[in-house]
Design a protein that fits this description.
The complex is a heterodimer of chains A (236) and B (654).
Chain A: H1 2-26, H2 46-75, H3 98-104, H4 106-133, H5 141-171, H6 183-186, H7 191-195, H8 202-230
Helix pairs in contact in A: 2-5, 2-8, 4-5, 4-8
Chain B: H1 2-28, E1 38-43, E2 50-55, E3 65-72, E4 78-80, E5 91-94, E6 104-113, E7 116-119, E8 123-126, E9 137-146, E10 149-157, E11 171-179, E12 186-191, E13 195-198, E14 206-215, E15 227-230, H2 239-262, H3 264-271, H4 285-290, H5 293-300, H6 330-346, H7 362-377, H8 390-410, H9 459-466, E16 483-485, E17 519-520, E18 535-540, E19 545-550, E20 572-576, E21 582-585, E22 609-611, E23 624-626, H10 645-649
Parallel strand pairs in B: 16-17
Antiparallel strand pairs in B: 1-2, 2-5, 3-4, 3-6, 6-7, 6-8, 9-10, 10-13, 11-12, 11-14, 14-15, 16-19, 18-19, 20-21, 22-23
Helix pairs in contact in B: 6-8, 7-8
The chains are: A mainly alpha (236), B alpha+beta (654).
GO cellular component, one term (chain A): extracellular space
GO molecular function (chain A): hormone activity
Keywords (chain A): Disulfide bond, Hormone, Secreted, Signal
Chain lengths: 236, 654
């Protein structure tokens, strides 16, 4: 009997080890790839990365504009404003005109982008959760899908920008000061608490979407400027 | 104190009263505070500056000033418009320093006049959403060629204010093209590229091109100034079409050629109808085959030309002449008979071959009538000494028909069955006469002769021809200018017994060699009815020659009365009496008769008996020409001098 138990224990342990091994190996992490210019490491060229990132940001902004217009049509037909409301990302200093943007430099611009992207991951999931739980029938599934899509896109874009930054660091375009920034550090307070205690209502949804639209526009614009500053070409 | 209070109260009241009065006065004078202005639009051309325009309301009759105030997002500071002039009247221009992107502006316009100020409704704008760039610049259009096919290359540049180079603003472009003169534009979205190709151009056309741009989320710019471009002419494009057209035409041509070839014959007939061959009178192909030149040429001689008869009083145009061809020429006659058969069968007058005869000519008519009468006369036929040759029989038929036809033509049709009404009189003594011919038809006896002479015929011959038994010697000769003498050798012209039937079958195709020659009557000649040529005997001259003349309707009269008592038209044979006398009948319808003496002339009008002086004739019998029967009504005497044979039937047997 003891030998049976030990046999079983060994099997279990072996299985567990195998599982852990698989887990670790299959995890898709956001670790930078091709550290230190490893040989045989193939990364797409910077131009392609930039193109992908720029397209992704443009798509994201388009979806958010659609969402906002639908929301605005339902609740605020004529107004597109937020009164006495601040976006939770107001703490992130973003350049408001071209000179400031150009004066900022690539490094800081990249960092701003990353911060913005990081600031939205959590609120979007909460928004999604809130919208799905909303008993109000005004929210249709189409909008929920869009929010879900944007949420995914934010994540992907963030990863993409990080990879691009890594590439740029390798190329010497960016300094090494830029690193992975966790959103918890950037955000002064949890998003949910920023907006409201408790559940978000439709008004909060609207405000949230409004802020999302603006920030996605910022991201898109900053990325374009970054691209044209880094790689001046035909598109610029 | 109370007084001061009262006074103050009253002053206040007075002020209020004055104010009220003033207001009323002002209103009465139509002065009012300005109306509320309206912000119409705000635009940013490059996302760095922007301008707002407002629409003022009525100013209330007083000078009014406008002011724009704005407040930024999350700030309570109110700023006034920095620039009222750059953008024109009723506008406010925000320069780069005053412009913040992704910031809400709360803008208000205030109109102020002496009576008050009015605030407009506030407007919130975000500069990002009000971008409307200027139109693209430096639009160039050029014609380029790609493998022989031209296309337009349009290139442009973004507006110079929009900073696309730094990536601050991203523009997408759109262009439109149309042909000069058309109404609809062709739109093309070019995206972010600054160059575009247009294909499928019309050769030689002039195109108009315009370009405009728009930021990602904003407003479309105005269209750029029109660029004109003319596409040069080129045939390269149309070459395949010409090749197709050429092939098609070639195909059509081939089909037409084939059709023409198939229908060449009918087309030839249509376009170039066959020229009718010349038909020569008297031309016989068979003669050619026989190769007898003399016969051929003699056959060609037209009896009417050249005129050889001595000039007479009357024209010697004998229309109807039947000539009997003797045996020597049997062959020829057979041939001609074949032709006559053909004419027989063809029937009718119109089928006659082209011999120059008149319509409904005697020949064919003869045939028809002959055919008619033949069936009835056959039983009465009596073969008398005929040479039983087929040809004779046929000739008989010919004669019968000929006679009937002749009569038909000459006289009004009153042919009774079995009678030949008319009979041309012919006496053409062909030297080749054989005595084998014998003609005796019952019908032929009725034949009449145009005998114009008192010394005309041997009566016997005459009578024999007119015998009821069918003595008929007829010789039909070609009309006019024939002289033939009645030789004494010939017993009779129409002797019933001696039947040297010599018939000269005068036919247009028959070799009538006797034409133009002097003939000798050799006796009885059965007249051949084949010929439709009828002559009338004009006279008999001293040499015992019977002068014939063609019978026509216009016979002149003999004016002179020579010894030939032919002043009048005695061309009708009334009958032949027993004494072989040819009984002639005087033409009743004709006037101007010259009766010469020497004739037995009855006082009766209808009966004239002329006994031809046979003194000149060595031969008996005398021919007495007399009208044996009265002119009956049914006897139609045509001008042609044919006697109705119906009257002859009543001839007493002599």
């Amino acid at each position: 009997m003891l030998t049976d138990k030990t046999g079983t224990m060994k099997e279990v342990g072996l299985a567990a080890l195998m599982l852990v091994y698989l887990e670790l190996s299959m995890r898709v992490g956001s670790a930078p790839i091709c550290h230190h210019e490893q040989t045989g490491c193939h990364t797409p060229p910077l131009e392609d990365l930039f193109d992908r990132v720029v397209q992704q940001s443009s798509r994201m902004h388009g979806i958010s504009s659609d969402l906002q217009s639908e929301f605005g049509r339902h609740f605020f037909p004529s107004k597109n404003i937020i009164e006495k409301r601040k976006c939770h990302t107001h703490g992130i200093l973003t350049p408001a005109d071209k000179e400031n943007t150009q004066r900022l430099g690539r490094d800081q611009l990249t960092e701003v982008i990353l911060r913005l992207l990081g600031a939205w991951a959590d609120p979007l999931s909460q928004l999604l959760q809130s919208m799905s739980l909303d008993k109000n029938q005004d929210l249709n599934h189409h909008n929920i899908n869009k929010v879900l899509e944007i949420s995914d896109m934010v994540h992907e874009l963030r990863d993409g920008v990080e990879k691009m930054a890594e590439k740029m660091k390798l190329l010497g375009v960016l300094g090494n000061t830029i690193g992975y920034v966790s959103p918890e550090i950037l955000a002064p307070s949890p998003t949910v608490s920023f907006y409201k205690q408790g559940e978000l209502n439709s008004m909060d949804h609207h405000d949230l979407l409004y802020c999302l639209n603006r920030d996605s526009n910022k991201i898109k614009n900053y990325l374009r400027v970054l691209k044209c500053t880094t790689l001046p070409g035909l598109d610029c | 104190m109370s007084l001061c209070g009262a006074m103050m109260k009253s002053s206040v009241e007075v002020n209020l009263l004055l104010l009220l009065v003033f207001t009323l006065c002002v209103k009465a004078m139509r002065y009012s505070p300005p109306e509320k202005p309206v912000l119409t639009r705000c635009r940013s051309p490059e996302k760095e500056t922007f301008t707002c325009w407002w629409e003022p309301g009525s100013d209330g009759g007083l000078p009014t000033t406008y002011a724009l105030f704005y407040r930024k997002e999350n700030s309570e500071t109110v700023y006034e418009c920095p620039d009222y002039h750059t953008a024109g009247e009723n506008s406010c221009f925000f320069n780069k320093n005053d412009t913040s992107i992704w910031v809400n502006y709360n803008i208000t316009v205030v109109a102020t006049n002496a009576l008050g100020s009015t605030f407009s409704d506030p407007v919130d704008i975000d500069v990002v959403y009000i971008v409307k760039p200027n139109h693209p610049e430096k639009v160039t259009v050029t014609v380029m060629e790609d493998k022989g096919w031209p296309f337009l290359r349009v290139s442009w540049e973004p507006p110079h204010q929009a900073d696309t180079r730094s990536g601050w603003i991203t523009l997408i472009y759109e262009l439109r093209v149309k042909l000069e003169g058309e109404n609809e534009w062709e739109m093309h979205l070019a995206g972010q590229q600054k160059m575009f190709n247009i294909f499928s151009l019309r050769s030689g056309g002039t195109y108009l091109v315009q370009v405009r741009c728009k930021p990602d989320h904003g407003f479309w710019s105005e269209w750029s100034t029109t660029s004109y471009i003319k596409v040069p002419d080129y045939f390269h494009r149309e070459k395949p079409m010409w090749v197709l057209i050429t092939c098609f035409c070639a195909f059509i041509f081939l089909i037409l050629t084939w059709l023409l070839h198939m229908n060449s014959q009918s087309l030839k007939h249509c376009i170039l109808p066959p020229v009718p061959g010349p038909k020569i009178k008297g031309f016989d192909k068979q003669l050619l085959k026989n190769g007898k030149c003399d016969e051929i040429f003699s056959a060609l001689v037209v009896p009417s030309f050249p005129p050889t008869a001595p000039p007479n009083c009357e024209d010697l145009l004998v229309e109807y002449l039947e000539v009997y061809v003797p045996e020597e020429q049997e062959l020829i006659m057979e041939e001609s008979k074949d032709l006559n058969d053909l004419c027989l069968k063809s029937g009718g007058c119109t089928s006659d071959n082209d011999s120059g005869r008149g319509s409904c000519d005697s020949h064919t008519l003869l045939m028809d009538k002959f055919r008619e009468a033949k069936e009835k006369r056959k039983p009465r036929e009596q073969g008398s000494g005929q040479a039983g040759t087929e040809s004779q029989g046929n000739q008989r038929d010919w004669e019968e028909e000929g006679s009937s036809c002749a009569h038909e033509d000459m006289v009004s049709p009153s042919i009774s069955s079995g009678r030949v009404k008319t009979w041309p009189c012919v006496f053409s003594p062909l030297p080749q006469y054989s005595s084998g011919r014998l003609e005796h038809k019952g019908s032929l006896e009725r034949a009449k002769q145009h005998c114009h002479s008192d010394t005309l015929f041997p009566l016997g011959s005459t009578s024999s021809s007119l015998d009821q038994q069918g003595q008929h010697t007829k010789e039909t000769l070609r009309p006019s200018n024939w002289e033939f003498g009645l030789s004494n050798k010939q017993p009779h012209l129409l002797h019933p017994h001696t039947r040297p039937q010599r018939q000269l079958q005068a036919h247009s195709d028959v070799n009538i060699s006797s034409i133009g020659h002097k003939r000798e009557l050799r006796g009885l000649h059965s007249p051949a009815p084949e010929s439709t040529e009828y002559v009338e005997v004009q006279r008999v001259n001293e040499e015992n020659m019977v002068l014939l003349q063609p019978v026509d309707s216009e016979r002149g009269h003999m004016e002179d009365c020579s010894q030939v008592p032919l002043g009048e038209d005695y061309s009708r044979v009334n009958g032949v009496d027993r004494d072989n006398r040819l009984l002639l009948q005087r033409e009743v319808t004709q006037g101007d008769r010259c009766f010469c003496g020497d004739r037995d002339m009855n006082g009766e009008r209808t009966e004239n008996c002329y006994s031809l002086s046979t003194a000149t004739m060595t031969q008996k019998p005398r021919v007495c020409i007399h009208t044996a029967m009265p002119v009956q009504d049914n006897m139609v005497l045509g001008v042609t001098g044919y006697v109705d044979t119906s009257t002859a039937s009543t001839l007493p047997s002599y």
